[in-house]
Amino acid sequence: MDNDEILVGLDIGTTKIAAVVGKKDEYGNLNIVGVGHAPSQGLRRGVVINIEKTVQSIQSAVEQAELMCGHKVSTVYAGIAGDHIRSMDSKGVIAVSGKDHIISEEDVKRVINAARAIALPMDREILHVLHQEFIVDDQDGIKNPVQMAGVRLEAEVHIITAAAASAQNIVNCIDAAGYDVADIVLEPYASSLAVLDDDERDLGVAIMDIGGGTTDIAIFFDGSIRHTSVIGLGGQHVTNDLSQGLRTSMDQAEDIKKKYGIAMQSLLEKDELIKVPGVGGRAPREISRSVISAIIQPRMEEMFQLSLREMERCNVFDTLAAGIVLTGGASLLVGTAELAEQVMGMPVKIGLPLVSGGLVETVRSPIYATGVGLLYYALKHGPKDRSGHKGNFEWILERLRDIFDNLFG
């Protein structure tokens, strides 16, 4: 890509929509040049439920970022999450057909295509096919087999799928807002590009992106992604518990959570009384911080227990030497890392986006992990042609055309 080319990551979340604008400097580093965010009112648990409100939020966030960076935005890389996301492992095998049986880039493409040839329901589409390792003539653990000699090439891949309608609705909202979609990227995968380093991926690490409506999980080991899943709990559920328990509005509950909330009661050094506004003209009441924490902690514990149960399904869970990295807006709640460490029995840290230039201080927050990660994805992969998001039927037709071309072309 050109050094002057503007890249835009659009994190479309349940509680907020964030736009992060960046460009590559002369040294190849990512510079953040603009940031914008707006409340998200048209989504529930990562899924669009109101097109009009989502379009307005996208326009507001991107326009803020445009004002900050002084550039007009035309194309965005969009994040997708939600409990409609599914993942599976698959394997492909081919015979190496080149001269002297030297593996070429074309062989790698063929074996990955063979691995992605899975039966999918018509209402689902493939988001990513992420290779884990290659096997050449029974020699496993190979990351890049190009130029190696062998007669048989296998690929083990991790396939991530989404509900086709949910993905299409996100594209429709961005189109209606006046922008083109370069690619759709799974949000925890994008976040991992921003907050994890190579050592963590090699040692074994789990990233938990705690958003408003869902908690998205991705597990890495030996440099590759091994497991992805989504838990239908997020920061909004904590806010809802506070709203019910304190008998106040969701907006007031969110404000109280951010200012006075603590995820682990035992970390509360000094109790104090907080004034809670009443609803419908009722007089405000005074509630102690310990009561607020007593409402928050059980929900956070449930979130971590469900996440732990989900992570234990991954066969490399016991080897996660680098522990767990928390990101997303809800990870900013005081005591979250300490509670997660206690519940999950592993070292836990808060993940901050790794950026070197531009608006570093502005985006050094878990809130912007996905937005910054989308920019790293754009730098690494570039825009994808729409075949990357074709439904299963269209993809099968395309493969049949390739086969006929090879046979009769």
Structural class: alpha/beta
Rg for CA atoms: 23 Å
Q: How would you state the average pLDDT, rounded?
A: 88
Quickly name the level 1 CATH class of the domain at 198-351.
Alpha Beta
* Sheet with most strands: 6 strands, mixed
Helix content percent band: 25-40%
Please name the CATH topology of the domain at 198-351: Nucleotidyltransferase, domain 5
Percent of residues in beta strands?
Answer: 25-35%
Low-confidence stretches: 386-396
Fourth CATH level, the homologous superfamily of the domain at 198-351: ATPase, nucleotide binding domain
CA-based shape: globular
Q: How would you characterize this protein structure?
A:
The chain is 36% helix and 29% strand. Strand 17, helix 9 (336-344) and strand 18 form a beta-alpha-beta unit. The chain has 409 residues and is α/β, with parallel strands linked by helices. The chain is built from 12 helices and 19 strands. Among the domains are: 86-161, Dna Ligase, domain 1 (2-Layer Sandwich); 198-351, 2-Layer Sandwich (Nucleotidyltransferase, domain 5). Helix 6 (235-246) runs antiparallel to helix 8 (289-311). Strands 11-6-1-2-3-19 form a 6-stranded mixed sheet, sandwiched between helices. A 5-stranded mixed sheet has the order 14-13-12-17-18, sandwiched between helices. The radius of gyration is 23 Å and the shape is globular. The protein starts with 6 loop residues before the first strand and ends with a helix. The chain has helices spanning 51-69, 105-115, 164-177, 187-195, 198-203, 235-246, 250-260, 289-311, 336-344, 360-363, 369-381, 392-408, and strands at residues 7-12, 16-24, 30-39, 43-44, 47-48, 75-80, 86-95, 124-136, 139-142, 152-163, 180-186, 205-210, 215-221, 224-231, 273-276, 285-288, 324-327, 348-350, 357-358.
